[in-house]
Amino acid sequence: MTGLGKSPLAEALPGASLRAPGQLPHPRRELGGVHMAAARLLAVALSVGLLLIRDGGGLSVSGAEELTDTSSSSSSPQLSTVVATESKAESARARRPSVEQELDAARAAIRRAARRRHGDGSNVSSAAPEWFRGDHVDYALLARVYRNPAAFYRSYVEMEKHFKVYVYGEGEPPILHAGPCKDIYTIEGRFIEQLELITGGVRTWEPARAHAFFLPFSVAKMVKFAYRPLSYDKTPLLSIVADYVRVVASRHPFWNRSAGADHFMLSCHDWGPEASRGDPELYANGIRALCNANTSEGFRPGKDVSIPEINLYTGDTPQQLMEPAPGLSSRPYLAFFAGGRHGHVRDFLLQHWKGRDPDNFPVYEYDLPSTTGKGARGVDRQRDYFSYMHRARFCLCPSGHEVATPRVVEAIHAGCVPVLVSDGYAPPFADVLRWEAFSVSVPVADIPRLKEILERIPMAEVEQLLDGVRLVKQHFTLHQPPERLDMFHMILHSVWLRRLNFRLNQ
Question: Can you give the pTM of this predicted structure?
Answer without folding.
Answer: 0.82
